[in-house]
Design goal:
- The protein is built from 13 helices and 15 strands.
- The longest helix has 17 residues.
- Strand 10 and strand 11 form a beta hairpin.
- It has 331 residues and is of the alpha/beta class.
- The model has no long low-confidence stretch (mean pLDDT 91).
- Strands 1, 2, 3, 4, 9, 13, 14 and 15 form an eight-stranded mixed beta sheet that branches. The protein has a four-stranded antiparallel beta sheet with strand order 7-6-5-8.
Amino acid sequence: MPFERFMELALSDPDFGYYTRHVADIGGRRADFATAATMSPVLGQAIAEWLKRERDFYGWEKEWHVIEVGGGDGSLARAVLDALGWRLRRRVRYHMVDISPQLEALQRENLKRYAKRIVWHREVAPAVEAAGGSALIFSNELVDAFPVRWLRWNATRGRADEIFVEYEPERGLRESFVATDDALPEGITFADGQRYEIHDPYRRWLESWSPILSSGSLLTVDYGDTDMAQIYARRPMGTLRGYHRHQRCEGAMIYRWFGRQDLTCDVNFSDLCRWGDEIGWRTEMMETQAEFFRGQLDPKSFEKSRATAFLLDTEGAGGAFKVLHQRKRRA
């Protein structure tokens, strides 16, 4: 099967998938990884300020809708709702979208205080429909968890080979390579054998529900860059990796714990901007996480902690994470 299908099953198969069956926690002792939201409330505070400004931009005076996709354990939603303040909270309808029953249970437990304001969904489309086609949508570390097409550059053919996964009873899982017509974008060169990823499933997901949204904004926070050539120059095997009990797993290790480890890779934000533009989204802003924090919040208000310092560090998460703001074009 294509690696994309293997990754989809490993993460979201109803019976064996990591997110649908085996994820236990995020950021805690039982977790495989942590996110900015579980480390510090500063991300939620910055997003709350962005939500306020976008609400004013659209002139929504009465009930307004916020959709968070992939809400983790609910820490980000709690920080956002805390920071909105009671005046805005009483008019907001907050929609949580998550494919994971386990994570939804954690969210409900951690968000009991705001339960009357929150509606849970398994897919984005019903949330957008419930919002009447107008909403502010955001995610943190969502795109990186989508399945990817995994490719290996074949310099001899001048085209890519797609990585497939096969199972043999005697040898177990092994990779095979199938010729494709994929060429590199203009201006990019790869050495023979360079592996790289394309988030085609995310593109299809965005296309599936965007027509339902008549007006609104999309905020995407994730790790990656617009110039992926620089990242791949340091990573000839690509950026795909797994996380199991806070251990980083690469190479053959990504096949070791099927359904019991997170699988992820860096996000090509140039693709996200281009795909959005093709279906009616306008890119309003693209910046580092550190720039986003300082643009939304007074630096004097930042919580004094090692975690917040790390999230602001341009040599750490503050630079590695990017923030993309897109608005749906009006007719």
